[in-house]
Amino acid sequence: MKIALLIMLSLIGSSTLSAANNTHNLSPPGPQFEVFLASAAGTDNHQPAPAIVICPGGGYSKLVLEKEGRQIAQALNSKGFSAFVLHYRLPESLPARPLLDLLSTITLLRSHAADYAIDANRIGVMGFSAGGHLAAVSLTSPVHLQTLLGGAADAGSINNIINSGRPDFAALIYPVVTMFGDDAHSGSRKQLLGANPTRQQREDWSPQYHIGADVPATFIVHGVLDKKVPPSNSQTLYAALQRAQTGNQEQNQEQDQKQSTLLLLPDQSHGFGLSRDFNNGLWLNQFVEWFDKQ
Fold first, then answer.
1. Is the predicted pLDDT of residue 18 greater than 90, yes or no?
2. Tens-place pLDDT, residues 148-178
3. Which of 16, 135, 210, 268 has a CA that sits 20 to 30 A from residue 107's CA?
4. Dist. CA 152–CA 113, nearest whole Å
5. Backbone Cα Rg of the chain
6. CB 126 within 8 A of CB 171
7. Rounded CA gap, 191 and 95, in Å?
């Protein structure tokens, strides 16, 4: 069920929820998101629904809101998830801007979980293409997020959104990952970092180098035939996730460990969304099955 509103939230700072119309009292500018609440048929009436913030793709130059936003949200509703389609702001020479928008949104949703009937401990992110890069960066270690967001706001606000804004799980769909070499999506890199980024900038925004032991469980999907964003992007990130989670498991053998997975689709290229498998739910059904095991 979609609430026919765009919710706008302040970049940093408190906001007040109005129970009458589910709008926020905010100080613009800030990101916006569309709300798609899980229908009664798709969720246990006695339990709050898991929630997913959707980051559409678009090469950091636009947002593909229908195919990689609203259609995905509606499909997730049918699976018992509430979904929030994020209209993150484009970098425009400020690489940290989309990341700040994502983490701020998750922070706000946690603080208003009861108002949306969502589980504050099961708020994830699902990103497509460049939105997948944004989602992947949000999974990096808190120390690295501090580095990326330094100067974007005061230290107290940054600490708050890092502590509360990292997702509890993630789904990355044909994500841009690396900022290096031929495997990088040059358009996304240029929009995010400019025409001539330094090596340090490229490394800072290549999430595979900054995955910590506390990384959330992550579900990754990529088409083998993808020429725009080669599947090596997902394979490289998956290898980093495996190293981190294996090391964490060895240190905490008695604790159930969250696991990540990589699904490679042999007949898909880039940007497939749900267009070819909406009815049989190929990757979406597998995502739900994976989520239920976490």
1. no
2. 998 666 667 899 999 999 999 999 999 999 9
3. 210
4. 26
5. 18
6. yes
7. 9
